[in-house]
Every structure is written in C-alpha cells, then in structure tokens.
Amino acid sequence: MNRRNYIITVARGFGSGGKEISLKVAKKLGIPCYYTQIMKMASEISGINEREFVQTNEKLRGNALLRRLKAVPNRDKIIEPTEHNFVSDVNLFNIQAKVIRELADTESCVIIGKCANDILKDRDNVVSFYIEAPRAFCAARVMKDFGCEYDEAAKMIHHTDRYRADYYQYYTGGKKWTDPVAYDMTLNSERVTIDGCVDSIIWYTSYKLGRDILQEQS
C-alpha cells in the first residue's frame, strides 16, 4: 500500500449536491474522482459488459425486501467466469469492491457512493462523508438540473434515495445508509453551502490524517 495516499468517500442524498462537492474537492486537491468510472474499470477487468454494472448501479434488481432477507453476500469472493453466477448482482458488486480496494491501495482519490465507506472502513487512510440537505433544497436543485416541476423532483428524490438505502443495507449486511456513525462527518449542504462543504471536507481530511494534503499535492 502507498502509505502516503488517502481516500475520500462521499455518500449523498439525491439533489444534495454531493456529486458536485466531490468533483470540486477532487479538483482542488488535484486527485481523480471516481463514480461511473468504477463500473467501466470493473467491466474491463472482468470482461462483463458495462451495461450489467449500470443496471445495478446503487439499486437492487428484483424484490428489495426479499433480497434483504437473504444471507449477507461474501464481498471477498469473486466468482470465476465458468460459474453460472458470474454476472449475478452480488458478483458484480464484489468486482466493483475489488476495484475500490485496489484504488485505495495505490492512489489518492475521491470515491462517490458504491458503499465505499463500508468497503474501506478498516483502513486508516480513508475519510468518509455523508452529504444531505432538506427536501426543498434538494428539489430545487433537481428541478433546475432536470427541468421538471416540484412534484416530479420530489418523486425522483424519494425513489433514488430509497434505491440507495436498499442497496447499502443489502451489501453492508443490514447497515443504515444514513447512520451518521458510518461516516467521519455528515454535512448539510444547504446550511454549510456547497463550497463550504468542499472546504470542510478538505480541512477535516487534513486534520484526521495529520498533514496538509493541499501542500502535498503541489
């Protein structure tokens, strides 16, 4: 492991600005930000069509309630191409988890979503954040981004956050996506502001790791 590298993970409520915040943090620190790129990398190392990863991106296929009742998946086991469950949802997740661990071993970066905070929870070079905001603030951002009315924006927020919560609960063995204990810091992007969240993440990461990460990147 590169002992000087660090990973910032960001979980976010839909419309909270978490993706924008993550991209700004990465740009300010001069490090890459990974989200959809993880699916592409997982496709490349496994040979599985990227479309399969996109279809399971932070949501469960099938009945979410039934999925939660199944045994907790083994995140360390990747099925071989010759086995019939090679493209199962669990195997797709495990391949992405492998990519996330390898990133954490080799470089500094920001990772958005994908249970990264839980996958990397035992590593001392990882700092995890959860970004959320009141519904009205999130809806206003969604309305602007998608050109829709409030009711449609509220519906999108409800469904997307439910998908993310179910996905996180299943792949972490029943943990709550919004549990503040799962993160180093939870930020309200309406109160703190988008740029305030960026500065807070950088400051706390530097504080926790005991070094000036901005200077180290220069």
Describe this structure in words.
The chain is α/β, with parallel strands linked by helices and about 220 residues long. Helix content is about 55%, strand content about 10%. It has helices at about 20-30, 35-45, 50-55, 65-70, 90-105, 115-120, 135-145, 150-170, 190, 195-210, 215; strands at about 5-10, 35, 110, 125-130, 185-190. Strands 2-3-1-4-5 form a five-stranded parallel sheet, with helices on both faces. The protein is globular and about 45 Å long. The two termini are about 20 Å apart. The model is unreliable at about 80-85 (pLDDT under 50).
CATH class bucket:
Alpha Beta
Strand element count: 5
What class, by secondary structure content? alpha/beta
The overall average pLDDT, rounded, is: 86
Keywords:
Rossmann fold, globular, single chain, 218 residues, 11% strand, 11 helices, 5-stranded parallel beta sheet
Quick structural gist:
The protein is an alpha/beta fold. It contains eleven helices and five strands.
SSE arrangement:
Blueprint: E1 7-12, H1 18-29, E2 33-34, H2 36-46, H3 50-55, H4 64-69, H5 89-106, E3 109-112, H6 116-119, E4 126-132, H7 135-146, H8 150-171, E5 185-188, H9 189-192, H10 194-209, H11 213-217
Parallel strand pairs: 1-3, 1-4, 2-3, 4-5
Helix pairs in contact: 1-10, 2-5, 7-8
